[in-house]
């Protein structure tokens, strides 16, 4: 039995409705054709594949070295989720995969971790070790510190920045800094006023920078 040290998550890069009238076994057979017939591999490259309905199908036997991550096949298990077409490496998992898929992936990963004593930092996405976007999200970010319900939660819907609590907090900080500076100016000599305005300006610039970064976080759908 080969020594297994890591789990690598992939996507099939297929559209959400790809072969949706076919069974999961028929879909897996088609992927096997891509790998065996089209690429000349010995068998399907992945060890497990997870359908849109959350059904898990065994691919290549665990005992057999996979063909899914160049330079990392020898000691890894490859898991592929159907979907992920057009995804980016920093998308959310819920942007491209169903809650049933993600729940099944989470359960399978935890099971394999226990079975082969694989540490959480050794559960990664293909994009961690290649320039590809696959599987279309950051696996470590998805898994780290998340409960199952959080891992499969839908991305919060946002229509404007004011819905974000962090953006609100940053705007309030900038406003407060400006107000404090104006209030402090009264009764001071010209030199002191310049010093206060200088410090206030730096504080406001820093606050604007923080708010900009928080708006980026808002754009990803997080409060």
Topology diagram in text:
Blueprint: E1 6-11, H1 24-38, E2 48-50, E3 56-58, E4 76-81, H2 99-116, E5 123-125, H3 139-143, H4 148-151, H5 165-185, H6 190-219
Parallel strand pairs: 1-4, 1-5, 2-4
Antiparallel strand pairs: 2-3
Task: Give an overview in words.
By secondary structure, the chain is an alpha/beta fold. It has two domains: 6-151, Lysozyme-like (3-Layer(aba) Sandwich), CATH 3.40.80; 161-219. It is 42% helix and 9% strand. It is built from six helices and five strands. The protein has helices spanning 24-38, 99-116, 139-143, 148-151, 165-185, 190-219, and strands spanning 6-11, 48-50, 56-58, 76-81, 123-125. It has a five-stranded mixed sheet, sandwiched between helices. Strand 2 and strand 3 (56-58) form a beta hairpin. Helix 5 (165-185) runs antiparallel to helix 6. The longest helix has 30 residues, at 190-219. It is elongated and about 80 Å long.
List its salient traits:
alpha/beta; 6 helices; 2 domains; 5 strands; five-stranded mixed β-sheet; 223 residues; single chain; disordered C terminus; Lysozyme-like
């Amino acid at each position: 039995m080969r020594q297994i040290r890591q789990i690598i998550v992939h996507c099939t890069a297929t559209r959400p409705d790809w072969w949706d009238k076919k069974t999961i076994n028929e879909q897996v057979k088609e992927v096997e054709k891509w790998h065996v017939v089209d690429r000349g591999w010995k068998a399907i490259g992945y060890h497990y594949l997870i359908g849109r309905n959350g059904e898990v199908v065994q691919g290549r036997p665990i005992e057999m070295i996979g063909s899914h991550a160049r330079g990392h096949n020898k000691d890894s298990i490859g898991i592929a989720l159907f979907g992920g077409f057009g995804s980016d490496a920093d998308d959310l998992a819920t942007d491209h995969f169903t809650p049933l898929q993600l729940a099944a992936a989470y359960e399978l990963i935890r099971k394999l971790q226990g079975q082969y004593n694989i540490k959480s930092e050794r559960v990664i996405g293909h994009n961690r070790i290649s320039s590809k976007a696959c599987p279309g999200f950051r696996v470590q970010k998805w898994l780290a510190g998340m409960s199952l319900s959080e891992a499969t939660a839908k991305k919060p819907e946002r229509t404007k920045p004011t819905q974000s609590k962090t953006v609100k907090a940053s705007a309030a900080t900038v406003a407060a800094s400006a107000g404090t500076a104006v209030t402090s100016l009264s009764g001071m000599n010209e030199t002191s006023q310049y010093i206060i305005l200088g410090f206030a300006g730096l504080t406001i610039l820093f606050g604007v920078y923080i708010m900009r970064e928080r708006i980026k976080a808002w754009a990803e759908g997080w409060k």
